[in-house]
Amino acid sequence: MTTAAPPTAAQSRASRNRARLLRTMLPALSMALILLAIAWLNPRAISYFGFSLMLNLAIPIALATIAQMFVITINELDLSIGTFVGFVGCVTATWLHDAPLLGALVLLASIGVYAGLGALIHLRNLPSIVVTLGMSFVWQGLAILLLPKPGGSAPDWLKGFMGLKVPFVPFPIVAAVVIALVVHFALMRSAYGTVLRGAGGNPQAIGRAGWSLLKTKVVMFAMTGLFGVISGMALIGITTSADANIGNGYTLLSIAGVILGGGEFVGGRVSPIGAVIGALTLALAASPLLTFMSIPPDWQVAANGVILISVLAARALISRKGA
Amino acid sequence: MTDPLRSIAKLDGVRRSFGAVRALDGVDFTVLPKECIGLVGHNGAGKSTLMSILAGTGTPDSGQIAINGAAQTAWSIQRARALGVRCVFQELSLCPNLSVAENTRVSHASLKGWGGAKRAADLIRASLDQIFPGHGISPQDIVGDLAIGQRQMVEVARAFTVTDDPLHLVILDEPTSSLDAQTARQLLDHIRHAVAGGVSCILISHILGEILDTSDRVVVMRDGKVVADEAAANLTRSALVASMGGARLHAKTNRTDTQGTSQPIVAEVQAGAAHGPIGLQARRGEVIGLAGLAGHGQTKLLIDLFEAAGSPRNGLSVAGAVALVAGDRQTDGIFPLWSIAKNISIRSLAALRRGVFIAADKEAHLAETWRDRIGIRTDDLDNNILSLSGGNQQKALFARALASDAQIILMDDPMRGVDIGTKLDVYDLIRAQAQQGRTFLWYTTETDELDNCDRVYVFRNGQIVAVLNHGDLTEEKIIQSSFAEVTA
User: Fold this and answer.
1) Contacts of B245 (CB under 8 A, 6+ apart)
2) Is there a contact between A267 and B97 if contact means CB atoms under 8 Å apart?
């Protein structure tokens, strides 16, 4: 213990801001590290074609991560997002292809179910973990009923859209930037987005300012449903056919993506840009390209774990210094 | 005295009960334009409940609310804000994850669309500059990073910002509690300035000097009623203290000091440490009261003592096992899924073992013994704890502490919301247990209960500021010590 003079207000603000900046940069830094590692393993991967291949499945993951981020903003958790993405995938590959109107109605109704869950969780004061864990079996069951064995086929317009070729920059990167910016402006800059984040930070204060807390829950769960639907459709647009279990891994991946991107489980502290970067980082570390570099798939899963733990450790270290 | 047509806000016959506790018992309250009302009263007098009803966050059981002479039927927060009534709550209402500007935006629905963030920042900066010149807060600062005093400044400044909704009345509940002397002065000056500008204010404070200096009129509450309503100019500090405490005469229990000072000290807080200039000693067999306004460090001292029993700490010494009776039953006390018997026995499991298992017969015997001794009203101790009434749940928590091997019992305002019958039972029990050599440290917000204590320590701002022996104990003296003379 040394006895230092107490820092002045200006000094402490400067160090606080430095820690905050470092924290904000952490998701980008971790992705840069992964990219460096890939470049070192195989320099040719850092190319238009390489990125298109490595980030092939990154967009559905990024969308599912954003979906998860909405509920985490209001201190809830969605354990059903993975099977929900799978269910949406099955609807997309069957009804949306064969009877577009019915398919669209079913997908809209499923967003309504999410909104209803938000209302139920708020009104009955239920733990969202339990409710969504239950729902995960419901979505899974519906998906299996709809598509007992892998098959179906994506609507052509969807395949066309997901296979879009953009000059110079691979499509997944363009899509990721668009998703991150749209959600950033909606949640971080708009007036109601501020209220929604406030509802995660101090619900009582939001209530006392005259806002409906029920509405914040319903809106956030509906947004989760909406992005879950887009994620499932994007996934089928890439894979072109569906399987009832296709999204099962997304639940934990999406939670990891939010946390990797600088979000916290409670307190309304989230970052849409960070969440998208987090999702891309996880997708890169598990990309099929690594398999061709003779890195076995088992190690890739472990790599994701190692990345997550190191980033969280680095964040804890920064926070302690900043405090 | 007041013309209802001229009033900004008028409450008539407002009543509100929380379970067995009557928080407001028919209160009439009027706010006139361009006036500052000082609202004072001891713990649980009903000030905060009354203000939450006026601000629309609480609903009265009965009574009328009229704003600008118009009776309000569907009174709510939204309605209150639309009609220009704002409240700075005692527990701060800022979102720690948002910036200062964003918190301002949240409280003004009109700050939307492009440029809303910038307008919010300008608005709060202007308000902070006006009220607290030299505040050193940037609108971009995240509230969670600010010191508690700065947060209070933001909260106050936010209440005085105006966009679309009018601003007629600002309620300030203990606004200076975390401010230093200079900022508190700035705030009080601003209140006078705002009142001169046509905004009425209600100021709640435990610092009587600032109430008398700042207010035009002072309203005193006691036991859910308004007991005095006077122009501040006609009041003195001692008159205020007298009306808060009332002229209630206590039939003092005649207690002979049988224990004397020969008994060993079992718990001690040394003077000069974190708990202030006066030390605390508790001897074997004594009942020690901890008094003062709620939240001034009494609970913290109890927890510090509890922890000191396990591992010695600076300035605190505790000799013997301790047990804590929690005040907030629902969060700190009961195990809501367990039976009554299990709730009682949890503190004594070590004594109930047979081998590595808990002996069911010993456990049942312990629970039955204490049911009879303390009078828990149930026919089956295996029923869920929630099947009991609030008072009986509290008895079960007492049974838990008293059934244990602890010689020192710490009580954290355990009688909150308990009916009078239970209280009298428990007082008798505490005295009987003290006779047998147990020591009680008893934090209570009810002045009447202190009459059961051999000695009372009064807390203010986390420190012990006065010690009163049983013979010298009067409500007036406690209030005198609880309320600071001037802005600290």
Assistant:
1) B42, B447, B474, B475, B476, B478, B479
2) yes
